[in-house]
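Re: beginner question about structure tokens

> Can someone show what the tokenized structure looks like for a real chain? I only ever see the sequence side.

Sure, here's an example I had lying around. Input first:
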Amino acid sequence: MCPSFMATGEELHSTRGRAHLLWELMQGEVLPDQWKNKQVKESLDLCLACKACKSECPVSVDMATYKSEFLAHHYEGESRPLSHYAFGRIDVFARLASYAPHLVNAINHTPLISSIMKKILHIHPKRTFPRFAKPFTPDRRHARDARRLRGNRRIPLPADAPEVFLWADTFNNYFHPSAMRAAHQVLTTAGFRVTLPTQHLCCGRPLYDFGMLDTAKDYLLKTLNALTPQLQTGTPIVVLEPSCASVFRDELTNLLPHDPRAQKLRDQTFLLSEFLVKRAPHYKPPQLDEKILVHGHCHHRATMGMQDEIALLRLTGADVELLDSGCCGMAGPFGFEKDKYTVSQTLANRVLLPAVRNKAANTILVTDGFSCAEQVTQNTDTKPMHLAEVLAKPLRD
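And the corresponding structure tokens:
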């Protein structure tokens, strides 16, 4: 069921209601102003672009794509709110902040400055800005430690070890580099030679939330140009952030249907759990005597499915429970916006936050989505872990 409809109970915010309004819009007989129509804009405004309707509705209504297309037309020839550029181009600001993250974080969390920025960007006062970090870069110490383990011996990777490309997404690279570091270690331990981007790349996921499709196409073309060598050799592309993986699995071929490289990238993209289960049959995850709660990111559930993630975690021997939590309510910039905060919190408090607050003290919460982790950390004292961090934890210990 559509998350926003679950929160409001209004037909206007259901998949059926939105689809009907869009149909009337295209007919051009009942709704005036067509792409500028305020009622359609209001209906789509609370769509979290979770993609659940595409996988769960009998007719596979792709409301996330419809919303992006509508917003692209709605703002055509008009100026956009400043928040669209701030959130949509977060990769640019995150890269700049990474040069002096401690300074930027101090400025962002200064009460007066923070309050002014929130008012300008229409962010709810109870939200806090995520903290920037130095991007992950393997150094000699990391390369030495991230070696293949056989028993108690550390054996260097052979020169002909198969290559895997680790996608450095904006969220894990500039906000949560510990997940990047852990994934690099896990993949190396699994016997793969890990390569990383040599330039700043972004899939452009936040751009779709605001219908900035022309810019999104530019981002994707830059990505395809940069990854051409990997696409030609069939090198697997491992992506840690589910929303970024869904761009390569879904939006990419929709926006660039005639570029053969788009289909290759779609086929060569894997989440970490998918890759380890399907392309690393000799990999054995470390044994964990833990209780693990798993919250699945919306795009992870809808586009890729959670079966590989759960199967891999259960191979560790841990007691694993997949929460029936649906959308966390954060959904990128959605949960930060002032007028959507109540809906965001309503969805988070349906299952996810009560489960987190009631879990045992030593229980690990796993969620691979950056937005999902932010929703948890901004409402509880729990710090979620990425799958990569869970698999790398015994190696670090």
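Each token stands for a local structural state, so reading them left to right follows the chain. Confidence is low (pLDDT under 50) at residues 148-153.
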